[in-house]
Amino acid sequence: MWMICKKEWQQFFSSLTGYLALVVFLLLNGLFLFVFPDSNLLDFGYANLGGFFTLAPWLLLFLVPTITMRTFADEYKSGNFEILKTLPITPNSIVIGKYLGALIIVLTALIPTVVYAFSMQSLSITGGIDVGGTMGSYIGLCFLAAVFTAIGIAASSFTNNTVVAFIAGAFVCFLLFIGFSAMSKLPLFNAGLDYYIELLGIQYHYRSISRGVIDSRDLIYFIGLIAVFLFITSKNLLKR
Question: Is 26 in contact with 109 (CB distance < 8 Å)?
Fold first, then answer.
């Protein structure tokens, strides 16, 4: 399992595409948060990273499928999957190894953003940032990245075309993140059903954790969603 995890890491950074994806992610974050006038954190007048935690999920919608689209699609296309099947390792171990490798890459992209928190804290004249809320938001962002990674790997396990895997992964991530929240606002569901529909979406639970309160229901939701998509991926491998 760890051998596959290490291989996934090395394969991603073996080409310029891997470095380029991370650089673009960090560059876009920096531009939106410290350069562009409408979203510049320095213009708010107070130390707050709310803009970053609102923007980051949308950028992860594109970054994560970029990282995961090759996990299984390339193995199918190149024929390496046939070699994987001959190894003394279970399909579940292959899936978990691939998942952990991709997740570590995504978390590596998030680590440099901690600089934003230290920057806002040092620039603040009084009070500083809300440490509890910021930590909760980072935990929520890590869980969000973990779910997106599981979705991306599941999408990659259905096809040997990396472009199709990217589009499918990004679409499902978008649908689960914002789809249920958007659906709950329809007049049709105003009679109390809107709350339960919104409860099915990722955005509701992400916002809940971002308040700084770690609720067991949110953790169960994220872990359950990850388990479902990893299970789907494992079933796809067994079919092949």
Answer: yes
Yes or no: say if 68 and 165 are a contact pair by the CB < 8 Å rule: yes
Residue 192, SS3?
coil
Structure tokens at 67: 């990282």
Task: Retrieve residue 102's tokens.
Answer: 């991709």
pTM: predicted TM-score of the whole model, two decimal places: 0.89
Query: Which own/partner pairs from 164-170 qualify as long-range (CB within 8 Å, at least 24 positions apart)?
Result: 164/73, 165/65, 165/68, 165/69, 165/70, 165/72, 165/73, 166/65, 166/66, 166/69, 167/65, 169/64, 169/65, 169/68, 169/69, 170/61, 170/62, 170/65
With contact defined as beta carbons under 8 Å apart, do 180 and 197 qualify?
yes
Length of the chain measured in residues: 240
Structure tokens belonging to residue 71: 């996990």
* Of 198 and 42, more confident: 198
The four Cα atoms 174, 138, 225, 106 give a dihedral, to 10 degrees, of 70
Q: Are 184 and 195 in contact (CB under 8 A)?
A: yes
Q: Which residues contact 133 (CB under 8 A, 6 or more apart)?
A: 210, 211, 212
Amino acid symbol at 32: F
Phi first, then psi, for residue 160 (nearest 5°) are: -105, 10
* pLDDT tens figures, 116-157: 877 777 766 666 677 777 888 889 899 999 999 999 999 999
